[in-house]
Amino acid sequence: MPDFAPLPALPYFAVIFTAQRAEGDHGYTAMADRMSDMALSSPGCLGMESTRHAGGFGITVSYWRDEASILAWKADAQHLVAQQLGQDRWYTHYNLRVALVERHYSGPEGRAPVRD
Amino acid sequence: MPDFAPLPALPYFAVIFTAQRAEGDHGYTAMADRMSDMALSSPGCLGMESTRHAGGFGITVSYWRDEASILAWKADAQHLVAQQLGQDRWYTHYNLRVALVERHYSGPEGRAPVRD
């Protein structure tokens, strides 16, 4: 997965997931890779950006066409298993926010934030 | 700065900044620390969550009460200097998205994503 997601047509949704990993892998890495691939091929998914520092605090933002596509991915059977394992084993804490993206730009070659 | 931001009263805004750092520090670390402190003490700022992996890809999400507080921080004189340095030196690429947070939850002790 490339680090950056494209900027699709506005408006669209962002699901902001911030999470602290617990100690140990416990099957996390393999499942996370699989869930990323599945989410990205899920209808209405527009991309994903994700990073984590060595201390285990990570942020994953996935982008979606509409609420229906978010809810469909959330209800996916294999994703439900992963969500339960996330609660039971992988994360000591997480926040999840669903937000409507109203504007966006990229840089440095794009619109300059200092001039708008 | 703690890793997690609180979940404030809905709705509120999220500014999602994803960026790839260029090689070398060039004053980045000191300025980033200063900008985080300044943003967090800026009127209307509700919190911030930020992480970056060793390869230099980072995500910072800041949360704001309203559009006016986002625009006021964006126009801050010292922040304008930092934005220009970000374009000129620190980032090879970035995406910035402004989004309205419509719902949120936290876990594992909070609302269980598998059951809603």
What features would you highlight for this structure?
homodimer; 116 residues; 4-stranded antiparallel beta sheet; 30% helix; 37% strand; disordered C terminus
Helical stretch tally of chain A: 3
Question: What are the secondary-structure elements of chain A, in order, as H or E?
Answer: EHEEHHE
Order of strands across the widest beta sheet of chain A? Answer: 2-3-1-4
CATH architecture tag of chain A: 2-Layer Sandwich
The percent range for strand residues of chain A is 35-45%
Kindly, what is the distance between the CA atoms of the first and last residues of chain A, rounded to a whole number of angstroms? 31 Å
Topology, number of strands of chain A: 4
Describe the structure.
2 copies of one chain form a homodimer. Chain A has 116 residues and is α+β, with helices and mostly antiparallel strands. The first copy, chain A, has one domain (16-102): Alpha-Beta Plaits, CATH 3.30.70. Chain A has helices spanning 28-40, 67-74, 77-90, and strands at residues 12-21, 45-52, 57-64, 91-107. In chain A, α1 (28-40) runs antiparallel to α3. The longest helix of chain A is centred in the last third of the chain and has 14 residues, at 77-90. Chains A and B meet through β1, β2, β3, α3 and β4 of A and β1, β2, β3, α3 and β4 of B. β4 (91-107) of chain A pairs antiparallel with β4 (91-107) of chain B.
